[in-house]
Amino acid sequence: MKILVTGATGNIGRMVVDHLLAGGASDVRALTNHPKRAALPAGVEIAEGYLRRLSSLPEAFAGVDRMYLAPALETVNEVVALAKAAGIRHIVDLSGDEGTDWQPIARAVEASGVDWTHLYAGEFTENTTMWAEEIRTTGRVREPYPESANAPIAMDDIARVAATVLLADDHAGRTYDLTGPETMTRAERVRRLTEALGTPIEFVEVTRAEAIQKLQPIMGEYAEWYVDGLAMMVDHPQRATTTVAELTGAPATTFAQWAAVNAHLFR
């Protein structure tokens, strides 16, 4: 069984390759636009290409049985059509529910007629690094909603689930909501970073307008959407699921574990 991992230079795609090999996969092909940067393990077949460069895909898709589909909204309809034409039988996509911008990926995969499994992931734990420069330079985090709460998930846990699903035969037609193992507020997240660093970090509450202005240089038009999403999770916190542990047999990474490993990014 040949498994194709798209976006293999990206963080999650690269991790999917590693977890497939650890799980016993012996025929893995990796689609990457930058083979040297991906530093793929020996034995992984490399297909040079890109989901947004459609001309590179027919050759990469040839002979593939199952595929991990990285999120690429702009070309998803064409990509899944090419996958079906190539005879790919099962697509495992990283997408999102109706409340996210990533739902069109799930809809396109379903409409293709190919067997599918949707992985719906919320905020990545790694997004916390958006605070890194501010913490390093000021010892503070400036945000508007300290009680906004969600259950961030480590990218490696998403990759573990993707590999698990790709290697099994009983996940077609299923949707998995993936979160970290605990729901925490933004203020709690700062406190856990404080514990990991061993130095105090102050949470400074700012207005909605101040937060949007601060984020616009890095998020552009999405800054307002992001801040309003934080506001929504004050009264409607994201609930943690146990899906990662149930599917993989190992618990999802806690924020404290992630912070301990990545504390150097904030010092």
Key descriptive features of the protein:
267 residues; alpha/beta; Rossmann fold; UDP-galactose 4-epimerase, domain 1; 2 domains; two-stranded parallel sheet
Would you write up a description of this structure?
This protein folds into 2 domains: about 5-120, Rossmann fold (3-Layer(aba) Sandwich), CATH 3.40.50; about 125-150 and about 180-240 and about 255-265, UDP-galactose 4-epimerase, domain 1. The strands form 3 sheets. The protein has a 7-stranded parallel sheet, with helices on both faces. Strands 7-11 form a two-stranded parallel sheet. It has helices at about 10-20, 35-40, 55-60, 75-85, 105-110, 130-140, 155-165, 185-195, 210-220, 220-235, 245-250, 255-260; strands at about 5, 30, 45-50, 65-70, 90-95, 115-120, 140-145, 150, 175-180, 185, 200-205. The mean pLDDT is about 95. The chain has about 270 residues and is α/β, with parallel strands linked by helices. Strand 5 (about 90-95), helix 5 and strand 6 (about 115-120) form a beta-alpha-beta unit. The radius of gyration is 19 Å and the shape is globular.
Protein topology:
Elements: E1 3-5, H1 11-22, E2 28-32, H2 35-38, E3 45-48, H3 57-61, E4 66-69, H4 76-86, E5 90-95, H5 103-111, E6 115-121, H6 132-138, E7 140-143, E8 149-150, H7 155-167, E9 174-178, E10 184-185, H8 186-197, E11 202-205, H9 208-219, H10 222-235, H11 243-248, H12 255-262
Parallel strand pairs: 1-2, 1-4, 2-3, 4-5, 5-6, 6-9, 7-11
Antiparallel strand pairs: 8-10
The total count of strands amounts to 11
Mean pLDDT: 96
Distance between the termini: 45 Å
| Poorly predicted ranges | none
Structural class from helices and strands? alpha/beta
The CATH fourth-level homologous superfamily of the largest domain: NAD(P)-binding Rossmann-like Domain
**Structurally, how many domains make up the residues?**
2
The gyration radius over C-alpha positions equals 19 Å
Portion of residues in helices? 40-55%
Order of helices and strands: EHEHEHEHEHEHEEHEEHEHHHH
